[in-house]
Structures are given as C-alpha cells and as structure tokens.
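haha ok so turns out i had the wrong file open the whole time. this is the CORRECT one, sorry everyone. sequence first:
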Amino acid sequence: TLTVHLGPMLTDRGFSLPTVGWVVATYTGVGAIFTLIGGYIGDRVPIRWALFGFSVIQSAAVVVILFAETAAAVYLFAVVFGIGFGGRTPLTSAIRGVYFGRRAFASITGVSMIPMNIMMLVFPLFAGIMFDLKGNYNIPFGALAVVSFFGAALFLLLKEPQPQALDHV
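then structure:
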C-alpha cells in the first residue's frame, strides 16, 4: 500500500515529485543498512523480540506519515520506515528456519506468504477507494497502522522454539 500510494499521498499534500523520490531513496538506503543490523541483532536476541521491535518501528513510521505535513516529518518517516523495514527483512526469513527447521522451509514460506499477498492485493485497492470517497488517505493509512501494530504484537505470543534433532532440521 505504501509503495503504491506514498507518491500520490505526498503530492496531494503539496510535496514535489523530486521530494517523493528522495523520500523513497532515503528509506531504501536506510533499509539497506538496517538489513545488516537486523540480521546482526536477530543472531543475538530472541528472533521474536527482534521482529517485534522492528515491526513496531515500521508501524510507527506509518503513524508518522499519516500526520506528516512538513518535509522534516516526511524525512523522519523515511528514516523510521527504513529502520523498521530494513531490520525486519532478514528476520522474516530467518524466523521460519528457527521455528520450523530446514526441511519444510519452502513450504512454510509459501503458506506464510498467503496472508501477506492477500493484504498486498486488497489494501492498495481499499486505499484508492477510500481516497476517492474521502479525499485523503487517513482511513487506509490509519487502518494500516492498526493492522501493523497488531501483527507486531503477535510476535510476542510466540513461545521459544524447541531444539530439534539434526535429522529433523
């Protein structure tokens, strides 16, 4: 939803296309750095806690952009979003191995992508419809923030993974 509607949202608020480009470049660059940092942290703390932390940061970025009216706030969003998204990136793959081992890694990945793909299909459409009806992105981005915080909290419900014998890994 962000990748589809961030540009229109920012231009609707009066930001130029070059500014939108710099915002995307900023969160992409910060995300690249935090991909390394997220992997490092994920190897040193329980992965569910690391994922929770980076997911909360990414969710907070959605709240920032929801209320951003100044260039400083938009760039704050870009940095915070880059930290959260970048930090989560290596962890979302790694957690599958931690909890399920290597044997069914591809199957688990495929099944776990179903809800995300449904959201990636439905939420941009919802955002566009709501913009057409309301003239702004407050409802869809607010809903995205709530869903994101809820998803982050689900990581806290995970129990520590049980060690598996090598023949099950």
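The radius of gyration is 17 Å.
again sry for the mixup
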